[in-house]
Hints:
The protein has 357 residues and is an alpha/beta fold. It has 2 domains: 37-217, 3-Layer(aba) Sandwich (Rossmann fold); 229-354, Rossmann fold, CATH 3.40.50.920. It is built from 13 helices and 14 strands. It has a 7-stranded mixed sheet with strand order 3-2-4-5-7-6-12, with helices on both faces. The protein has a 5-stranded mixed sheet with strand order 9-11-10-13-14, sandwiched between helices. It has a two-stranded antiparallel ribbon with strand order 1-8. Helix 2 packs parallel to helix 8 (185-197), helix 4 runs parallel beside helix 5 (125-132) and helix 9 (246-257) packs across helix 13.
Amino acid sequence: MSTTIPYPHSGAQPGTQPATQTETEATQMTPDTTTKTLTLAKAINAGLHRALTDDPKVVLLGEDIGALGGVFRVTSDLLAEFGHRRVIDTPLAESGIIGMAVGLAYRGYRPVAEIQFDGFIYPGFDQIVSQVAKLHYRTQGAVKMPITIRVPFGGGIGAAEHHSESPEAYFTHTSGLRVIAVSNPQDAYSLIRQAIASDDPVLYFEPKRRYHVKGDVVPELGRSMESATVVSPGTDVTLLTYGPLVSTARDAALAASDEGVSVEVIDLRSLAPVDYPTLEASVRKTGRLVVTHEANRTGGIGGEIIASLTESCFNYLESAPVRVTGFDIPYPAAKLESHHLPDLDRILVGIDKVMGR
């Protein structure tokens, strides 16, 4: 079944006149300045709603994102308000979803494609790394790819095979893509809006086991999506992480403080590009570095960050940096996930190691 999508400049189908803006519509477009307490999932929904409202060129597409509101209900109620031309249920074909997004981008739209689960992204991998990442470069800047690809990622929900993965390193390795990972409702709201507004293709990773975490959300764009955030300051150890492990890292810093160790926790937020100036300033202050993530150790983002910071901060390091990661195995069965995912104890062991304990 074909879907007719309105031309971006008018918001209407070819040959029709744009609808007159009603008083209700004008009210809906008035910026909301109220701080709200939202879950991470609802914050993404609010960000998508704002982007759809502000720009008629924004189109959502993905499996079951319409009437169902997505598997995690992140797109709930958007179909009812914006209609089938803006919130499009697609066939179960990730390659087709990304291919459709490429075509929409060529026609001037800003498509937001949802990959239902992280492990389902691989059928669309070729489209992402061969087309989405390269078309701007290949056309010498003539073609932009303002595509946002939303990816629920990571473990911790007891899902079946292919439903828990951490594929982010594949995409940080691919030149031409921006890669971000959110950890809290405010960033979830602000960064989805920044990703959609960007003329570059963005992989937007959402930690599925943190969807129900609540926090205050201010309806503004906030910090640039390229910036890392110092979550909690410290003087003895720099602890770098992102996405689902940020809250675990904060807990580890609190536990370490009971033993007299001051840990500076930094949320990377952007995995490509990495905000190295912020990381370097922290490492030069503390002299010790621990990086933790759920993904495999070998070829993971942690190894690349450690290599780069060792090059730029070698004379400041008082001990060898440490990685605390998932093991070099496929994500295990649900009952074994707790042994695979870095937890408070494993991170504390890494902190002890760099402290020489």
